[in-house]
Amino acid sequence: MRMATSIALGSVLLATTAPTANALQNQPPRAVLTTAPARLRADSGTVSYEVAGIRVIHRYVTANEVVAANVYLLGGTRQLTDANAGVEQLLLEVSGYGTAKYPRETLRRRMAALGSTIEVAAGVDWTRIGLRATSATFDSTWAMFADRLVAPTLDSGAVELIRAQIFAAVRQRRDYPDALLSYLADSIAYVGHPYSIDPIGTERSIAALTRGDLVRYHAKQFNTSRMLLVVVGQVDRARIERLVRTTLGTLPRGQYTWTAPPQPAVRGDALVIEHRVLPTNYIMGFFHRPASANTRDYYALRVATAVLSGRLFGEIRSRRNLTYAVNAPFHERALSAGGIYVTTVSPDLTMGLIREEIESLQSDVITRQGLSELVQQFITEYFLNNETNAAQADFLARAQVYQGDYRAGERFVDELRKVGPDDIRRVARLYLRDARFAYVGDSTKISRAALTRF
Q1: Is 78 part of a structural domain of the chain?
Q2: What is the pLDDT of residues 73-95, one digit of tens each?
């Protein structure tokens, strides 16, 4: 599961927000939220407006002094090709080494003095560059943050330094089974689709990128029509408008319009095996029928993967002790898909059990009470994972981009609770099929049939 990531590719997120315990396995549910948090259910503190051609979503928060401001460069891998994959990540990382107004040492000293941070994360639907500051240091941090987007110097020495770091990180993912598995699984799941392009880049694409490529890409792609700005924190609208208008607002307007990615071509199951002699074997696959984030099936599929995660945990880890990690990950994207992830020393047996659990989900109707308990648990964990200002910014961005309205996030809980047992069986039949798997481990311990019967 390729995630938005920074240069440190050795750490790959493999868990989802789906619960790891199963409320349907007669386990006592944890404490649950009976209603969504007020800020997401009836949110009068969030507004949306446009400044100099940039859509701004602004949530005024007084609970803390932290301000999270993210600029989302929309399009993600649809703006890239196999030849220039990674160019956006490389450009934004290099921008931290000097801008027209702030040479490298000035940037370094001022950021350190302020205690603020700026991070870059490239993904398949957008590239995010975000700042974390306090209300008192927001203006000063914003000035440097915005100049990285508007006028990076892209010094040749910095380009070579960061390119070498990213190249090494991309090469090293072959040394980490989970990182390699994630890359292979995403690539085989979306053959011929923009999602198959790695936003971080490949060894070939990173090695070929030059300073000239970065300069040309900046001139063509860094425009306000591609930008969504989300600000969460104790900063007022007038302040944001002033800062945006005098910085990002000076960029060209451009003519970009977000549209949902095309559906991938329907293909049957597929398999890629990377032979490694390891203490355990790593398996990940995604079902090749993604659900659009603006449909009801999206919510039903989220719940279905949570149900499946719980069942797999109960059967394969708790009862059989065949794994230390198993779940049914959910790709939270414009085109969202469910999948399978497991590490095991007995891959044939484990995959057979996984297939049985999926078939059970497709044929049986789970109890309404059991489903209600799991949905409540899921809601609790989801909102606990979205408590920080930075996480709230991402939550608002996903709603705005994927569903066309940041207020769609307010309906998140209600939509989850509308999912019924029949919906789970229906989406399991429709979407949990035609899996395309990646396997990293001892190839003598797995039969091809075990991975191609989904």
Answers
A1: yes
A2: 999 999 999 999 999 999 999 99
Domain shared by 191 and 228, yes or no: yes
Q: Which of 36-40, 248-252, 255-259, 396-400 has the lowest mean pLDDT?
A: 36-40
Same domain (yes/no): 157, 54: yes
296 pLDDT above the threshold of 70: yes
SS (H, E, C) the chain: CCCCECCCCCCCCCCCCCCCCCCCCCCCCCCCCCCCCHHHHCCCCEEEEEECCEEEEEEECCCCCEEEEEEEEECHHHHCCCCCCCHHHHHHHHHHHEECCCEHHHHHHHHHHHCCEEEEEECCCEEEEEEEEECCCHHHHHHHHHHHHHCECCCHHHHHHHHHHHHHHHHHHHHCHHHHHHHHHHHHHCCCCHHHCCCCCCHHHHHHCCHHHHHHHHHHHCCHHHEEEEEEECCCHHHHHHHHHHCHHHCCCCCCCCCCCCCCCCCCCEEEEEECCCCCEEEEEEECCCEECCCHHHHHHHHHHHHHHHHHHHHHHHHCCCCCEEECCEECCCEEEEEEEEEECCHHHHHHHHHHHHHHHHHCCCCHHHHHHHHHHHHHHHHHCCCCHHHHHHHHHHHHHHHCCHHHHHHHHHHHHHCCHHHHHHHHHHHCCCEEEEEEECHHHCCHHHHCCC
Q: Name the residue range of residue 74's domain.
A: 44-250
Residue 17 has a pLDDT of 31
In a domain, 35, yes or no: no
pLDDT single digits (tens) 29-64 = 333 323 333 344 445 589 999 999 999 999 999 989
Question: Does one domain contain both 277 and 161?
Answer: no
Domain assignment present for 83: yes
The share of the chain scoring above pLDDT 90, in percent, equals 76
What would the pLDDT profile of 343-359 be if each residue is shown by its tens digit? Answer: 999 999 999 999 999 99
Same-domain status, 144 and 178: yes
Q: pLDDT tens, 135-172?
A: 999 999 999 999 999 999 999 999 999 999 999 999 99
- pLDDT score of 43: 54
Cα 329 from Cα 286, distance rounded (Å)? 9
- Only one residue has tokens 């400044």, namely 51
**Is residue 27, in this structure, part of any structural domain at all?**
no
CATH number reported for the structural domain that contains residue 370 in this entry: 3.30.830.10
Verify that 297 and 241 share a domain, yes or no.
no
